[in-house]
Amino acid sequence: MLSPTIQKALNEQIHAEFFSSYLYLAVAAWFNDQHLDGFAAWFEAQAKEELEHGIKLFHHIMDRGGTVVLEAVDKPKAGWENPSEAVKAVLEHERYITGRINALADLATKENDHATAVFLHWYISEQVEEEATADRLFNQTAMVEGSPNGLLMLDRELAGRGGSEGGEA
Ligand code: FEO
Question: What is the pTM of this model?
Fold first, then answer.
């Protein structure tokens, strides 16, 4: 059984993961408006990954005999000044998610919930990868800011790997 404290925290994390998905869809839509289809496809793939992160938590709660409580997903921001600002929003959000996952792992340990602590190991490793991927993309985008040629090259590169690496941030 899940303790009420852990159950509440896991439900809140489902909400956070679904909000991540919504935010990344908003970023994908914004890149689509900028005619940067590679970036748009890449962030759409990211958004799908975030839904999966939420669904994994959903199953963990049910597998442990807990109750899933779904909250309304918050409205994400819709516009950014330039491509690097949009990617930076994602990087900052990933850092926020890492903080949440670490706090959740601390809570699982404090509550002696070993199954949840082990379950969260996947998320802890995933966050290392996701932050690194978002950080790399942010730096590359900032590097080519103001250079249409550079931006288009990066966009093409992202279009090419949208299906594979697209889910890692
Ligand atoms: Fe589910 Fe990108 O963190």
Answer: 0.93
